[in-house]
């Protein structure tokens, strides 16, 4: 028998009708009761919290990170499944992956339709996640939806309501689940796991600012003045903004703010091609390009880097390693 612990956090998979809309309110055992168990798998439930995922805070995510590590302290556990709302699943999964050094898998799943929907996707996703958690090893943190197995890194929600809502726009899925079998097609690209942040570590403010036509750095500067220790600049194209943003980045970096540079384009890397406020200038000003990581996961990368060290230089180096796994590949 394979022993899988299910950590529940709420989301649509735990949602019921509340009179004018759906909200998470189902306990973990109710969620688990919606699915059949794969043969040879036993489960235990940890009810961590029950919230809609847009309401998750950094404190929630750090609590989840610690809870999963506590579960994996038991050598008798073969894998972990986290049920999570889809809106911010990509963020929580990536944060856990950045701190996950165990060979045993952590598998995120959820649903696009509420728990009581007769045609819902909760049962199928949960079954597939349990089977994956009981079957794979040394793949880090994963997301399982609609029969696909995705790496945490790079995987984002690409459709607001469709059941097959998660994809990595820049990379293929890790594998698939079907007919009671798990098929792994590739190994995810990962960085060396970061240590857990200290219990007493403060939770830094990390903001996101998007560039667009007519944009100026007013909101970027406001984030710095509001106390942001990290900012994600969501640029256009391959990571481009304006000379005014270049100056704002330089000012922020000079004050010890960690700035990450991503793009609003769904696929492809941030690349220093253009000057005149383009990525070449923004990177020269101190922004760290985050490769194919998009906004939410870039924010998690900045957050993890900020909590990794009190030293600005070390934080910046950590963010660079997170952004580019090829610099420090995980040993096989």
UniProtKB/TrEMBL annotation:
Active site (UniProt): 12, 12 (o-isoaspartyl threonine intermediate), 86
EC category: hydrolase
GO biological process: asparagine metabolic process
Domain L-asparaginase N-terminal, chain residue ranges per copy: 3-188
MF term (GO), any: asparaginase activity
PROSITE patterns reported for this sequence: ASN_GLN_ASE_1, ASN_GLN_ASE_2, ASN_GLN_ASE_3
EC number: 3.5.1.1
Protein keywords: Hydrolase
Catalytic reaction annotation: L-asparagine + H2O = L-aspartate + NH4(+)
Transmembrane residue ranges: none
Domain Asparaginase/glutaminase C-terminal: 205-313
Protein name: asparaginase
Organism this protein belongs to: Streptomyces xinghaiensis
Species lineage: Bacteria, Bacillati, Actinomycetota, Actinomycetes, Kitasatosporales
């Amino acid at each position: 028998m394979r022993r899988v612990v299910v950590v529940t956090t709420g989301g649509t998979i735990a949602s019921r009708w509340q009179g004018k809309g759906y909200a998470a309110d189902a306990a973990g055992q109710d969620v688990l009761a919606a699915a059949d168990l794969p043969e040879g798998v036993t489960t235990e439930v940890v009810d961590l919290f029950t919230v809609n995922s847009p309401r998750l805070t950094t404190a929630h995510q750090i609590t989840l990170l610690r809870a999963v590590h506590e579960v994996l302290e038991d050598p008798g556990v073969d894998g972990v499944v986290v049920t999570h709302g889809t809106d911010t699943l990509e963020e929580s999964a990536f944060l856990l992956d950045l701190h996950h050094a165990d060979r045993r898998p952590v598998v995120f799943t959820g649903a696009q339709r509420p728990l009581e929907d007769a045609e819902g996707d909760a049962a199928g996703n949960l079954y597939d996640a349990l089977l994956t958690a009981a079957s794979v090893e040394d793949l880090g943190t994963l997301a399982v939806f609609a029969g696909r197995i995705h790496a945490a890194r790079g995987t984002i929600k690409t459709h607001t309501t469709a059941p097959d809502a998660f994809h990595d726009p820049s990379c293929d899925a890790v594998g698939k689940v079907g007919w009671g079998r798990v098929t792994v097609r590739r190994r995810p690209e990962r960085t060396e796991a970061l240590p857990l942040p200290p219990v007493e570590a403060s939770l830094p403010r990390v903001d996101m600012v998007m560039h667009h036509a007519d944009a100026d750095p007013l909101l970027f500067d406001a984030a710095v003045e509001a106390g942001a220790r990290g900012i994600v600049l969501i640029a256009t194209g391959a990571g481009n903004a304006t000379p005014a943003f270049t100056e704002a980045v330089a000012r922020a970096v000079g004050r010890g703010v960690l700035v990450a540079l991503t793009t609003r384009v769904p696929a492809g890397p941030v690349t220093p091609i253009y000057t005149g406020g383009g990525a070449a200038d923004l990177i020269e000003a101190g922004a760290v390009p985050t490769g194919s990581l998009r906004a939410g996961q870039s924010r998690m990368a900045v957050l993890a880097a900020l909590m990794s060290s009190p030293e600005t230089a070390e934080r910046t180096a950590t963010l660079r390693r997170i952004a580019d796994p090829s610099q420090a590949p995980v040993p096989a």
